[in-house]
Every structure is written in C-alpha cells, then in structure tokens.
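Pair request: fold both.
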Amino acid sequence: MHVDRPIRRQKPISLTPLVDVIFLLLLFFMLSSTFTNFGQVEIGAPAGGGGSGTVPKAILVLDGERLRLNGRDIADEALLQSAQDLIDRDIDSLLVQVRENTTTQNLVSVMTRLRSLPGLKVTVTGSG
C-alpha cells in the first residue's frame, strides 16, 4: 500500500524583520557618526597680467607638516605669534607657498589661523 504524504507548503518569507534590521542599522550609524566643521579658504581670481603687481614682504612655505617663515623653521603652535610679529613690524602681506606633499587639510588649517589676524593680506601659491 502506497501512502501519499501531504505536500508541505512553504510560508512566504516575511520582509518585516529585514526592514526592522535595516532601520536599526541606519539609526545606529546616524547616532554614532560625528560631524566636523569644515574650514573655508577664500580663493580670489588672479589679477590681469599674471600678477597683482605687489611684492609680498614675507614668505611662508608649507612643506608637509613643516612650516618655514622667511627661511626659518617655526613650530605649528608659534604660527600666530610669528604672524603677529610680522604685523607689528609693518609687514602686511604674506605669500603662502604650498609644496606638493602638503595636504589640503593642512593648508586649510593654516589659512584659517592666518585669516584670523586683521591687517595681514595672505596670498597662496603652489610650488613643485
């Protein structure tokens, strides 16, 4: 005698737990992420004729993490004081020369600090 087994029907897969898991992951990543403040660097158009006609009175070279002001190494913490000393000596223009191994974040942080000093005109140039 042959007995037929009843055909077992599979239940459809419910997507409700998947949606719950995705929501919990989204909530976790939103709450655990950090938001940083991004600095801005004002970039002006170049003057006609290839330059502005004014000669900078001081040069700051950014070479990676290294800072050189008028040929002398300065510490990162001493940048504002050195720039203030320039202003005190009636030096009102500073050329920031960026070398190729300098990161954009380093340039933005230096420029943000320099822009906080009133009376100092800062110009940026690239160098290889």
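--- second member of the pair ---
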Amino acid sequence: MARTSTVRLGRTSGPSVSKGDLSKLIAKKAYELYEKRGRKSGHEMDDWLEAERLVKGKSSK
C-alpha cells in the first residue's frame, strides 16, 4: 500500500491536502495568472512560483 503525503495549507493551520492535490491547485492558479496576463507565453516559471506562494498562503511581496 502506497503512502500519501499531505501538506497543510496556510502558515499555521488549515486544511491538509495531498501533494498531488497541491500540485493541481498550483497548476490551476498558475493558469489563471497566465490568462490574466493575456495568455502571453514566456512567464511560466514566474506564474508557477507566484501560484505556489498564493496557494500556500504566503505573501507575494
């Protein structure tokens, strides 16, 4: 039986999600950022990193 890792969202407390679900949430948010920017390519890494910060509840500044 495989173990499923979980990650807690937010700084101190919040819901636990699997790493797979966390990646899906980050990907969705990164795509939203891409769309918001007018679907211009070349900023994939920036979008992913910003999405990670937003999903994990950290300040982007």
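Observation on the second member. The radius of gyration is 13 Å.
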